[in-house]
Amino acid sequence: MNWVNILIQGALLGGFYALFAIGLSMSFGIMRLVNIAHGDLIVLSAYVALLVTENTGLDPFLSLVIVLPVMFALGYALQRGLLNQTLSGGLLPPLLVTFGISIIIQNGLLQAFGAYDHRLQEGAIETASLRFPGGLFVGVYPLVVFAIAVFSIASLQLLFYRTRLGRAFRAVSDDADTAELMGIDNRKLYALALGIAMVFTAIAGVLFGIRTIFSPSAGPIRLILAFEAVIIGGLGNMWGTLVGGIVLGVAQAVGAAVDPTWQILAGHLAFLAILIVRPNGLFPRTRD
Amino acid sequence: MTLLRTQKLSAFYGDFQALFDVDVTVEKGETVAVIGANSAGKTTFLRALAGAIESAPEMVMFDGQPIGGKTPHEIVRLGIAMVPEGRRLFPSLSVEENLQLGSHSERAGPWNLKRVYELFPRLFDLRHLPSTDLSGGQQQMAAIGRGLMSNPRLLLCDELSLGLAPVIIRDIYQCLGAITAEGTTVVLVEQDIARALDASSRFYCFQEGRLALTAPTKDFNRAAITAAYFGL
Amino acid sequence: MESVRVERGTKASRVFALFAVPVVVALVTMPWWSGDAGNMRLIGEMAYYLALAQLWNLLAGYAGLVSVGQQAFVGLGGYALFYLTGPADMNVYLALLLAGPFAGLMAIPVSFAVFRLRGAYFAVGTWVVSEVFALFASLIAVLGAGSGLSLTPSILRQISPDRDIRDTILYLMSLAISIFVFAIVYLLLRSRHGLALTAIRDSEPASASLGVNTFRTKFIIYIATAACTGLIGGLIFLQKLRISPEAGFSINDWTVVVIFMVVIGGIGTLEGPFIGMLIYIVLRELLADYGTIYLMLMGALAIAIMLKAPFGIWGWVVRRYDVQLFPVGRRLAHAPLEDASKQ
Lengths: 288, 232, 343
Hints:
heterotrimer; A: 3% strand; B: globular
């Protein structure tokens, strides 16, 4: 097998995982909240896109015009209405509440759509590939996804480091009490943070729904993949998350090359290995 | 004109009562010192004023309006700013970003980045450094600047001299004079009694959560203060 | 001078014990006064769910180890039983006895990985570990790979050739294991280890500074819980007759409902899991015709409890009425004063 092809495929897959991870990383960085429902929200986005495409005839990329505001509003409302109340209670409330939300979403989708597999159809781009000299094949779609991942992280970095809102996010992440003493409305900020996180989650959901079949129970594995990307990369570092995603993707690609059924397992094992050797990830930045 | 008045202000940390019926008034333009031993309730008092600790609405009156129970960010918008104990600058932000953060509430007034750099020229040179790279004194100046950026009518200063060398403390208190000259009212919590009394026109002495003594500083009587300070 | 005694029991617990004994006797003798197989299966299920809930409560509510991966040990115990009785051709009782220790043993390397994580990360980490075990099980041919293994009739005949007797034995085993697990948890919490756990739960740094070996305590609890969970897993799949990676390591079946039970009933209390388990069974049986709506309801209930009454139903009762049915604390009791005025 062509090892360069494997590495490239794995790296591009990493773009996907980084996209999955953005929302989770934001939640954790700003609100110190590990959102167990994150994977299910990715899947929910795909289902919302499905509803939009089936009822409007829009193609999945265009459906984002509707899906993004919907998911933003959902994230804002979720944080403002529910999750903000869990932040001062210690470890259990956020964990258990997001766990509850996860179960509700999964079973709600099951009741509404049934246990069947679905897929968003985008057409030719799904299978197109570019051919490079040396027998190199690069799928167009994975390349587009990777580019979107890089673009997303870059725009978030821009937000964090060049805007008033981004300053507020970083301040709250550092020291929520003092931030409030400086005039920041923490609760509104958290809601905004989850709303923005959901925008990227929705993008990830739609892109993923085009590439892979999904069903109501597809959420948990997405959470785990996002989680692994964040931990491998190191907390508090968006570019680190991209690297984490790439490492995960490459590990999976290597595993898949040996035997396709080993793909996910290879990723898990790489994660556990890195966890044991470098518990803080490859590029940790957050002070906890 | 009374800018701030507390009426039987009591505050709790969970079940533990930290303030008992504190009555304090602050006139517009004054600098009032709050002194007392450790854990006397001085910081708790400031935090109650800033909204970080809950109190009943009428317990804190600001410009005639009850503000007890309001959230800290609402109180900043009304014109009270805090320079917290230990500075509490944001480590992920540069010096200038910390200052800019102070104006998040976008209150109008004379203070802006240019004015703050005029007051603390040293900060201008350091403005792009991470705030953690600064010395204690520079951090204190930045923290004061950050508080000023919200154009407060009342500035709460918690332990400005904490951990600083006397020379630096002197510089900082000189700057404080420039701030009050602008008309900003200041409540000053201090361990260093001499500094506190030097900078203020009136003082309150706390002891175990209660007011033990209050007087104009010109009527300062060492024996009375010592007695009140230590609860003798 | 008043004399002071340290009491372990409470009035409520003594009254409760009086009621509990006949109930337990009735349950144990149920095969004889009601031989209905459906009822026995239900009670058996309630028994093992209760045991799983008590164990998760011990782990999360007392040791502060919020694991979302206990299903790993259910699956490990189940697979151990199937492998030992199948390819290894061992006696079924012996296999069941070994299922627990096997899971406990596997928990040791697992702990090396997951104990590096804290809080919510620990939770997701335990989940990843469970997924790893599930994936391994699906790839190993001798374990039946993706489709899993079935218990052959000859294995079942080792318990008893007669179906009714077999049902009775399995039912009594469920009860026995459930009582056994509960007894272990109860005695543990009453002992000084339990005191250490409560201290750790209240404040880990404080208890560490007092000399409590927090790491070792948590480690032992984790391994012991894994072993007990493995034993239960063996029993569950012995009764189900089939195991597959999806069923054995199902987070929905073995962890989600267990967590909901504990949270709704009252985390950190011994009484809570009972209440939570009863609520689960009632909701499930009542809403059986409506698909998985009962799960959504439990999720919503868990959320509401976490936000409004974080100590759960029993926690609310304790705070309101200061009652304990399974006392684990120590109270100071005063001996009556001699009435000096009467002399």
